[in-house]
Amino acid sequence: MYWIAVAIVPSLLGAAVIANLINKPLELLSKAANRVRIGDFTTFRLDESVPIAEIQNVYRGFNQMSDQLSKIETNRTVMLAGISHDIRTPLARLRLESELSVNDADARKDMASDIEQINSIIGKFLDYARPNFVNFDTINLSDIVAKASAAALSNSNELDDLYIDQQVPEDIQVTCGPHRVTACVSQPH
Q1: C-beta separation of 174 from 139 below 8 A
Q2: Which of 74, 80, 110 is CA-nearest to residue 95?
Q3: pLDDT score for 151
Q4: In the chain, what are the domains?
């Protein structure tokens, strides 16, 4: 009986040490993965100088993956901002040209509206290019649907028989991206 106790105690202590050697690195890896999940690629680096070779390899691979994701995110941001800027420059020229060249006031107004809609879409690209961008406002749903419906009707010159049945209660407040609601109503396809 004495020998059984002598054998069990070191076995349990050894198991506890081994469990700690495994659980601690897994806990750190889990924390690092949570940081990467929210887009924080650089503040939580895993120490690659741990004594266990397998954990070193996992940490090294994780850190390399995090570095690559950071570079991809940076490149995406630069690319979207560059594309948006490159599109806005000719758009500004179109706006100026339409103001100076188009004699028909209604056509000029429609062109300005279309240019503003394109500009708004470009703004969304720029917003998306910013890390952790969220733009939610509390709006009256009926108002935004009414404005979007009116815009859709005014832009439907070839569809004279277009009718939009708007049945939204007046007192509904929603938290959303107002431009997305407008896009859903005015571009139903």
Answers
A1: yes
A2: 110
A3: 73
A4: 2-133 (1.10.287.130), 135-189 (no CATH)
Mean pLDDT of 111-117: 87
Amino acid letter at 102?
V
What does the pLDDT look like over 77-89, one tens digit per residue?
788 778 877 888 8
Tokens of 118: 């394109």
What Rg value do the Cα atoms of the chain yield, rounded?
29
Q: How many CB atoms lie within 10 A of CB 65?
A: 13
For the chain, how long is the longest CA-to-CA vector? 106
